[in-house]
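Need C-alpha cells for this chain, all 480 residues.
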Amino acid sequence: MKIIESDIVYLNPDLGMFESIRDMGYSVENAIADLIDNSLAAKSTQIHVDIVFDKGNSYIRIEDNGTGMDRDRLNDALTFGKKIKSTRDSDDLGRFGLGLKTASLSQGKRLSVKTAINNKEEIGVWDTDFVTNIVKGWAIKTQPFESTIDLLEKTLVCESGTIIVIELLDKLLNEKAEDSDLFYKKIDAVGDHLSLIFHRYIQGYLVEKTDIFYQGNQLKPIDPFAFSKITIKGEGKYYNNSVVVKAYILPHESKMSKADLKKASLENGFTFNQGFYLYRTNRLIICGGWLNMGDDMKSVEPTKLCRIMVDIPNEWDEVWGIDVKKSKAIIPNSIYSDVEKIVKNAYDSSKDRYIHRSKRKISDTGSYSWIWEARKSVNGKVYKINRKHPLIDQISEMEEKKDFDGLKKLLFGLIDHIEINLPITEIISDGAMNQADLSDVIENNREKLKKVTANFRKKLMDQGKSEEFINNLLGDTDLI
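Here are the C-alpha cells for all 480 residues:
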C-alpha cells in the first residue's frame, strides 16, 4: 500500500484526556487490587499496603519485594496502553497495560514509582498539574517531588522491589479533606476485599504463597468455598482442561457457625453472594451474580446457597470478555449450554436445601401432627392452620366442659405453637421464586375477612362493648 504523507493527519490526544482517564469508576479497593496484581506478576512474596490520613497530605503506599524494573521497563510501565510483553506469562495478572496508571490516578492526582533491581533505583512520576499546566505534554518526571521523598524510602530488606505512592487523593477526600471519619469509612472495606480477591495467594493454594499486609496487619484469607459440609453438584472442563467449572451448594445457614455465617456474607450480604466466582489465573475477579445466564437466574433468598467456581487462564481474556478493570465477564457461546446445565442443576438444588428444614414444620399431606399445612390453590400455594391439630381438638373439649382456665392456657399454648413453627423459610422461598403478590392474596380473601370481622364485631357488641371501642380495636384494618 502506497502512503502519501499529505493524505495523513496525526491526531495526538488532547491533555484533557488525562483527566478523563482518571475517571474510570474504580473504587479504592478495586484500584489497590489492580496494583497488587503488578506486584504478584513481579513474583513478590511480601506486599505492604498502607493508606494514611493526613488531611491534604494523605496518601496510599504499596511496597513489594518483587523483581523490580530497569529504566526502560519502568518507562514502558508508565506509558498508557503499553504492553510490556508481546506474549504474556501464564501468571501475568495484567490485561491492557493500563492498570498501574489508571488505578493509581483514579484515586489521586500524583503517582510516584520507585523501583530497583539489585539496588539500582529508578523513579517515575505522573502528576496532573505537571502534565497539564507546566510541561503541557504527556511527560513524566524522573525525580520525586519533595513531599514524596520520605515516602519512597524502602522499608523492606531486599535488593529488588517496587514502591508506589499515590498522593493528592482528591477522589477519597473530595472537598472534605478535614473529615477523617469519612476518609476511613471509604477505605473500611479494603482489607476484607483484598483477603477475598487474593485468598489463593495468601493461602498458597495453586500458586506461590504471598504475604499481604494491610495497615501493618497480615491479611488472612477469606475463601468463599471454605465451608464444612459444602457439596459439589456438578463439574465441567473445557478447552483442553484449561477452563474448569464447578458448582457447589453451601450448607444451610442453620448449620453454619457464626464465623461461617460472617464469611458467607462477604462484602454484599449472603443473598447477593450467590452465583459465579470467576478466577483468572487464581485471582478472583467476579464475586457473585449470574453473568449472562438470563432472566431465569436471579439472586433470590432460596438460591443463596449456590456458588459456581470458574477457573480460566489469562489467554482466554478476550473470549470471556474481561474488561479493563477485570470486573466483568461473559460465558462464551461455545460452552454456554454445557455450563447452563451444570448451573441450573445446582440452582435447583440450592432451593431444595434451603427449604428442607422448613418442611418439618408443615405438611403437604394433611397429617394432623403439623400445626401448619401447605395447600395448593388456584392462586398458588397457601398456608393454613391445621384445624384437626390435637391442640385445637383439646380447645374444643375445654369449651364444651366450660373449663375456661384450661381453655385460656391451651389458647396461649396454641398461639406459641403457631409463632414458633411459622414456616417463614418456605413462605420466603415461595414468594421469591414465584414473585407472589401478597396484595392479591388479601384481595382474593377479602369477603372471607369481612365475614370474620363482622362476626368478631357482633361478639364484642354482645359483650356490651361500645362502638367507639370496637372501631378503635379494628381501626388498623379497612374492614370495619
